[in-house]
Amino acid sequence: MRIVAYGSAAALVVAGGTCAAFVGGVTGEVLTVVLLSAGLAGALLLVFLEVGLGEERDLARDEERRRRRRREGTVEAGRRPWLRRWRRRPD
């Protein structure tokens, strides 16, 4: 699915470049701007989608690790119980 999405964004950019080369006048300019903008914006949105999905996978993996540790009864390394600190009175 990702290959199709990135491929269609690239196809829009190529179509915009082709229109710039072969279609003259205002029509060619409008088609070029529209196709290039749509292709580049689509590619940018797909990159942001990939970053977001990667973060979601990382969060799910971390959550699964936490669940497994809780089931096994182990304490996470580096975690200390909060110590209650008393405020010092001014001297």
Explain this structure.
With about 90 residues, the protein is mostly helical. The chain has one domain. It is elongated. The model has no long low-confidence stretch (mean pLDDT about 85).
Instruction: Identify low-pLDDT runs.
Output: none
Structural class: mainly alpha
Please identify the oligomeric state.
Answer: single chain
Total separate domains: 1
Which percent range fits the helix content? Answer: over 70%
Beginning-to-end CA distance, first to last residue: 69 Å
Number of helices: 2
Shape summary: elongated
How many beta-strand elements? Answer: 0
Give the amount of beta strand, in percent: under 5%
Short recap of the structure:
The chain is an all-alpha fold and 91 residues long.
Layout of helices and strands:
Layout: H1 2-22, H2 25-72
Helix pairs in contact: 1-2
Q: Any descriptors?
A:
single chain, 91 residues, mainly alpha, 2 helices, elongated
